[in-house]
Amino acid sequence: MRILIVNGNTTQAITDLAVGEARRAATSGTEVVGVTARFGAAFVSNAAQEAVAAHAVLDALARLYRGADAAVLAISLDSGLAAARGLLPIPVVGMTEAALFTACMLGDRFGMIVLGRDSPPLYGELLERYGVESRLAECRSIERSLLGQDDALAERIAQEARTLAANCDIGAVVVCGVVFTGMASRVQAQVPVPLLDGIACGVRQAESLVRAKFPLAYRSAAGPAPGMTGVSPELAALSAVPPSPKDK
Amino acid sequence: MRILIVNGNTTQAITDLAVGEARRAATSGTEVVGVTARFGAAFVSNAAQEAVAAHAVLDALARLYRGADAAVLAISLDSGLAAARGLLPIPVVGMTEAALFTACMLGDRFGMIVLGRDSPPLYGELLERYGVESRLAECRSIERSLLGQDDALAERIAQEARTLAANCDIGAVVVCGVVFTGMASRVQAQVPVPLLDGIACGVRQAESLVRAKFPLAYRSAAGPAPGMTGVSPELAALSAVPPSPKDK
Amino acid sequence: MRILIVNGNTTQAITDLAVGEARRAATSGTEVVGVTARFGAAFVSNAAQEAVAAHAVLDALARLYRGADAAVLAISLDSGLAAARGLLPIPVVGMTEAALFTACMLGDRFGMIVLGRDSPPLYGELLERYGVESRLAECRSIERSLLGQDDALAERIAQEARTLAANCDIGAVVVCGVVFTGMASRVQAQVPVPLLDGIACGVRQAESLVRAKFPLAYRSAAGPAPGMTGVSPELAALSAVPPSPKDK
Amino acid sequence: MRILIVNGNTTQAITDLAVGEARRAATSGTEVVGVTARFGAAFVSNAAQEAVAAHAVLDALARLYRGADAAVLAISLDSGLAAARGLLPIPVVGMTEAALFTACMLGDRFGMIVLGRDSPPLYGELLERYGVESRLAECRSIERSLLGQDDALAERIAQEARTLAANCDIGAVVVCGVVFTGMASRVQAQVPVPLLDGIACGVRQAESLVRAKFPLAYRSAAGPAPGMTGVSPELAALSAVPPSPKDK
Amino acid sequence: MRILIVNGNTTQAITDLAVGEARRAATSGTEVVGVTARFGAAFVSNAAQEAVAAHAVLDALARLYRGADAAVLAISLDSGLAAARGLLPIPVVGMTEAALFTACMLGDRFGMIVLGRDSPPLYGELLERYGVESRLAECRSIERSLLGQDDALAERIAQEARTLAANCDIGAVVVCGVVFTGMASRVQAQVPVPLLDGIACGVRQAESLVRAKFPLAYRSAAGPAPGMTGVSPELAALSAVPPSPKDK
Amino acid sequence: MRILIVNGNTTQAITDLAVGEARRAATSGTEVVGVTARFGAAFVSNAAQEAVAAHAVLDALARLYRGADAAVLAISLDSGLAAARGLLPIPVVGMTEAALFTACMLGDRFGMIVLGRDSPPLYGELLERYGVESRLAECRSIERSLLGQDDALAERIAQEARTLAANCDIGAVVVCGVVFTGMASRVQAQVPVPLLDGIACGVRQAESLVRAKFPLAYRSAAGPAPGMTGVSPELAALSAVPPSPKDK
Question: Over the stretch F175-198, which tens digit does the pLDDT of each residue have?
Fold first, then answer.
C-alpha cells in the first residue's frame, strides 16, 4: 500500500518530519511518500495563508494522487480536506481529524495541546465542524517562541500534558499541529495518558480505510461541467466533476 | 465613497451583473467598481472550486483594495471572507452574510431560495458559522436547468417565495446566490414579503460601515513574519502580517 | 427620511442623549425625533421593569410611528422589538441587535461591555435569541456606581475595551446599553479595535432598511380580530391585526 | 393553602374555566381563587398582545398575591413568569412550564397539541427557554375555527393525540393552551397515553412547592431603587426591589 | 398512597437515610417503604458500578413494585430511570431529575453541589439528557474525605451554597447525591436561597404524579417477545414487553 | 494480536456471525475470539434489556479480557462501552462508534439504516453522545418482520441504501446493528457509496489502536476502594479501581 503525505506548507523540512513519523507509524508493507505545497506560506499562520494552503493541497493531490492508495494531509487545520474528498477516488484523511476521532475511542473526553495562545478558537471551529467539541475537556497552548528549541519544547509539552491528565478526567491528549510531529512519542514515557500524534493517527486511519476496500471511484467520475482556468491542468481536469449526481 | 465588488468566479458577465445591481442599490455619491477572479471556475459549483475561489478572492483584493473604501464579495458562499478581514484595512462584506443579517432585522424568521437541489446543506454550514441557522424557517431550491432562461427563472423564484410566505411566519426571503442577482427586485411586486438580494444588501452594509469610520488600519500593520511564495506579490506582502498582536 | 428614537425608560435625559447620538450618526437629510416611555421605570433594571417597558415601547410606537420612516429602540435589551415588528409597517431596529450584527461584519468574534455584574446572563439570553452567542469572545461589566461620573466611566470603558482587545482575537467591542450612549465615540481613540454604539449602529441600519424600500405594509393590514382594552386607543387599534395571514 | 390563578387574558370566562379545572386538580384543603387581567386582549393572539399580557400578569399579581401561598399563570405562553419570580415571595408556576416538566417525568419524549397552525414556532421558543426542546417528539396543531365547538374540538384533540401516540415513542401529550383547559381529562379515556392539562399540572406543582416551604422572602426585600410610574401603585412598590443583591 | 424508595447502592444505611427523608417530605397518608440493591457497589463511584446499579434498580423494582403507587430512585445519577419507565405501570421518578425540574420552577438558573472533584462532568451529561444544562449557573464540589463527618460536611455544604448564592443570580441550589440526603433541610437556615434535596423533591413529584391518576398500565402490557435469562424471574417477565406498540 | 468480540446478547448465533465478519475484516496475524453474554436478552430490544446488557458486557469483559489485546462490543447500542473503558487496560471499541467515526472520514455527511421503526430516536441519542449527530443526513429503518429472511433483508437494505445515496449528499451509509452483520459487504456491489459494517469497522479500529501501543495500564491500577458484591468475582475485583486518580 502507498500513502501520500501532503504538506500544505511550502517548507520541505516539515514534509520530511511528517514522512519520517508516518513511516514509524505505518505497518510493514506500507510505502510512504511526501509532497510539499508548491505555493503559499512557509508555515501557515493566519487565515489568508490557510485559504491559499487549501488550494495548494488540492493542487498537490491532483498532481500526485495517482498511484497512491490514500492521502494524509500534513497541515494542522486539515486545510482542503472536504474539497479533496469530493475530488479523489482514494481515501483522504486529515491529521487532526484522525487524532480527534482516535482520542474519542480512548475515553469520553480528551485534552489538546496547540501552538500559539491565539490558536484555541481556530481549533474550536474545527472541532465544531467534526462534531467533537463537546468531548474536549481543555485546550492548552504552547508559546510560539519555543519553536526550534526541541528540548525545551518537549519539556513544555510533557508538562502541559501532565497538567491536563491531572486536572481533567481524560482518556488521551491530542498533541496538535504539524510542527509538533514526533513529539507525542518522544515524551509519552513522561505522561500517564496516551499522547496522540496527528500524522501517526492519520497513517493508521488511512491504512484502515485502504484495507476496507471501500468503493470511492464514483467521486471522480468525469462530467461535462467546465473545470477551472489559471490552476494546474491536473486540478482543472479533476474539478470538472459535476457538483453532485443528483441535480444534473 | 468607492466600493469594490469582487467576483470569485472567472466570468466577467457575473461581475457586470453584480456591479449593475450594486450601482442601483448604492446611494448617490458612491462609486462602484468590479473585479473578476483571475483563476478558478467560470461558475463555482463544488467544494474544490470554492477552495480555489477563496484564494482568487484574496488575490483580487490584495491587488485592488487600494483606493477602495470597502469591498463586497460577489460569490454566494462568501468565499475567503474571514481571511480577507484579517488582511485588509477596509470593511469587507459577504453578499450572503449581508442578506442574512438584514433578514434578521426584518423578522424572527426568514426563508431562503438557493440554486440546486444539493445546495441547502452547503448554506446550512454557512448559516451555522454566522449563527443564524435557528432563524431559518425553510430553504427551497431552484433547479439548475433554469439558469439562462431569465423569464422562467423569475417566475420560479416568485412562486417559491410566495410558497415560503404562505407556509411560514417569515419576515423576509433571501434570494441567495450571485447568479440570482437582480431577481429580488425584478419579482418583488409579485411577493407579499421583502425579497433580499445579496449584492444590494452587501452594498448597503458596506456603505454603513464606511460611514461609521471604524478604525481598521491595525488589521494590515506589516509585521516581520514571512509572507507567501508562488502567489501574487501583493498577496504575499499583505499576508506577512503577524497572525495576531497577542502572541509574538 | 425621518427616524423615531423610542426610549423604553421614562427618563427624558436618556431620550435626549440617544437623540443626540442618533443625529451624529445619521447622514445629512435624515431627521431624528425622540419619544420617552409614558410609564414604567426611570431606568429599567430588573425583569419586571423590562416587561413593562416592552408595553411602553409598543404604546409609544403606536402613538407616534405615523410620519416616521423607521424606528430605533433606545433600551438596552431591545424590549418589545419582535412584537413591534409584527405591528408596524416601517422598519424597527433594536439598538443592541444593530450593534451585534454590525460587530459580526467586522470579524469572527466580538467583545462586549455591559453595565452591572449581574447583566452578562441577561445579555446572554439576548445573544442566544439573535443567534450570535457563539461569536461572543468575552463580556465584561462596569460597576453601576460609576453611572453619573462621566470621566471615570469613560476611563473604565476604555480600560475594559483595551483588555478585551489584548486578550481575545476580536474584530470589535460592543459598548452595550443606552446609558453608555456616546461613550464609544468618546473613547475610540484610546482603543485599537472598533467600539460600537447601539444607537449609532441602529440609526445606520435603520437608514439602510429605509433606503431598500422593502414592502412592509402587509404587517399592519387591519383585520377583524378584536384589539386590546385598557391600553392606549392607538395600540388597541394596531394590535387588532390578525395573528397571521395563514390561519384564519 | 391558597392558590391564585392569574389569567393574562381579559376574558372572565377563561378565568372561570381555569379556576374550575384548578379546583378539580387541587387536593382537599387547597383554596383556589382567580384573577383576570385588567387590560390587554380578550384572548392573546399575537406578540404585541403577549407583551401587554406580561405587564397585566404582573399588575394582577402585585395587587393580589398577598394572602396567597402560590400563583399559577393561566396563559399559554407563561407570559411574565420570569419577571414575576423576581418580584414575589411566593412560588409562581407557569401552566405550560408545569405541563412540560411533568411530561419529562413520564418518558424520554413527549408530544404537544397547540391551537393554530402558526403556533408551533412560538412554543418552540418557549421549549428552548425551558431547555426541553430536545425532548419534544412532535407538535401538532388544531385549527382555530374549532374554538367554541366543544364537541368537535374534543374529537380533534383526541384524534391528534392518538396520532402522536401511534407515530412517536412518547410518554405523554401536553394539551397546550388555556383555551384547551379541561380537554385533557375530557378525552383521556380515548387516548392510550397520559394527556396533560397545564392548569392541572400547574396546581399540582404549586402545591408541591408550597409544601416544601422554600424560603422565598428574599425575592421581595424592598430596596432603595426607584420603582415605576404610570403603573399600579402595588406594582410600582414591588418593582422597586434592587435588581440583584450582588451589585449595589 | 404508597411510595417505594429504591436504593441502587447495596448499603442498607443509605436506604434508611433516604426513607427517613422521604417520610419527612411526604404528606400525611403517604406510606414510604425502601428497598436496597441486591448486588453491586456499597456506594456507586465509577461508571462500571453505575452500569451494574441500573440492573440492580430494575431488579429491585421488578420484585417490589406491586402494591406501590410510585417509585423514587435513591441513587444520584438516576441509574436505570428511563428503562424503569418503559417497564412499570406506575410513575418512577429520579431523585436528581426531580430536584432539577423543581429548581427550574424556582428561577431561571440554579446552582449545584456534588460530591467529588471529578463528578461535575458526570452530572453535566445527566443535565444534558434532561435538557436543563443551559440553566445551570455553577456546579461546585465537596471533597470525598468529608463523608462520615456530618458536622464538617454540613458546614462545607452551607459554605458552598452561600458562595453560589453570592456569585450567581440563582433561584435554588440542588444539593445533589444520595449521601447528602437530609443535608439541605439541615443547613437551609444558613443559606438565603432554597436548597433542594433529591429524595424530598422526588417524593413530592411522585405524590403529584400519583394524584394525577395518569393511565400508565399500557407500559407493562405483556407481549409475546421473549424475556431475559440469568436475571431475576420478575425482571425476566416484565422485560418481555414488546419494544414498542408501533413495530410488531 | 488477539481481539475479543463481546456479544451483549445471549444468543450464540449472533456471536458466531460477528466473529465470522471480524475474521474477514482482520488482517492476517490477528486472532479473533468471541464471548456471549451469560445473562440478559436473547436479542436486546428495549431499554431494560439494554441496561442489563451493559452489565453482561462488563461481566464478560472482566472474565475474559486477559490475553486479549483489544475488545470490540458486538451490540448495536455499544452498551457498557464507557464503563468498560474505565476498567480495562486494553482498547475497547464499540461497533456503532467505529462505524460512525469511519463514516465521518469518508465525507461530510453519512446515512444510516437501522432495524425497527422506533429505533431512530435511540440511535439519535447515541450520535449525540458521540458528537456526530450534525453529520447524519438521514436515518432509515427496516421492518423487524424481515429478520430471518436473509435474501429479502439484503434486498431491502440495498434499496434503502440506494435511496439514501440518491437523496442525500453522503459519503457512506452505516448499516447499523449486530443482526445486520455481514450485510454491508453482501450488498455493497449494488450500492454506489461505501456501506459500513460495525463489526468490520470495529475490528479495523481495534487493530489500529493496538498497533499504536498506547499506554492504558493506568486504567486498571487497583485501588483501595471496595468492589461490588453479588456480581462475578472478576468484575468485583476490577471495579474496585478508585473512581479517579484526582480525588482520593
Answer: 999 999 999 999 999 999 999 999
pLDDT at position C247 over 50: no
CB contact under 8 A, B40 and A86: no
Q: From CA F111, how far away is CA F167, in angstroms rounded?
A: 10
Model confidence pLDDT, tens digit, residues B191-227: 999 999 999 999 999 999 999 999 998 887 645 556 7
| Sequence-distant (≥ 6) Cβ neighbours of residue E131 within 8 angstroms | D104, D130, D131, D132, D133, D134, D135
% of chain B beyond a pLDDT of 70: 94
pLDDT digits (tens, 9 = 90+) for C54-97: 999 999 999 999 999 999 999 999 999 999 999 899 999 999 99
The residue-averaged pLDDT of A71-91 equals: 96
State yes or no: pLDDT of F154 exceeds 50. Answer: yes
- Per the structure block, which three cell numbers stand in for F75? 451490540
Partner B contacted by C43 (CB < 8 A): no
C-alpha cell at C81: 422589538
On the 0-12 / 13-18 / 19+ scale of CB atoms within 10 A, F192 is: middle
Question: What is the rounded distance in angstroms from the CA atom of residue F41 to the CA atom of residue E185?
Answer: 43
Q: Three-state DSSP class for F212?
A: coil
Is the CB of residue A86 less than 8 Å from the CB of residue A219?
yes
CA distance E202 to E181: 12
Among A172-186, B107-121, D179-193, F153-167, the range scoring the smallest mean pLDDT is B107-121
What value, to the nearest 5°, has the Cα angle with vertex A184 and ends A179 and A188? Answer: 155
Q: What percent of chain C has pLDDT over 70?
A: 94
Task: Report the Cα B167 to chain-centroid distance in Å.
Answer: 27
- CA torsion sign for B196, B200, B201, B202 is positive
How far apart CA C22 and CA F247 sit, in angstroms, is 57
Maximum distance among all alpha carbons in chain B?
57
Mean pLDDT of E95-111: 97
ipTM: 0.94
Give residue E245's pLDDT: 40
Q: Do C54 and D58 touch (CB under 8 A)?
A: no
pLDDT of residue A248: 36
CA distance B235 to chain C (A): 20
Grid cell digits, residue F19: 466473529
Q: Which helix (H) or strand (E) holds B188?
A: none
Buried b (16+ CB within 10 A) or exposed e, D86-111: bbbebbbbbbbbbbbbbbbbbbbbbb
Residue pLDDT, tens place only, F198-222: 999 999 999 999 999 999 988 876 4
Compute CA distances D85 → D205, E50, E105, E142, whole Å. Answer: 15, 37, 9, 30
Q: Suggest the residue from F87, F208, F211 to mutate for an interface test with chain A (most A CBs closer than 10 A).
A: F208
How far B169 CA sits from the closest chain D CA (Å)?
A: 7
Q: Kindly tell me the burial class for residue B63, based on how many C-beta atoms sit within 10 Å of its own C-beta (0-12, 13-18, 19 or more).
A: middle
Whole-angstrom distance, CA of residue A22 vs CA of residue F158 = 37
Nearest CB among D82, D98, D211 relative to E27 is that of: D211
- Distance between CA atoms of residues D178 and D50, nearest Å: 14
Complete domains list, chain E, with CATH:
2-94+203-238 (3.40.50.12500), 97-198 (3.40.50.12500)
C42 close contact with D: CB closer than 8 A: yes
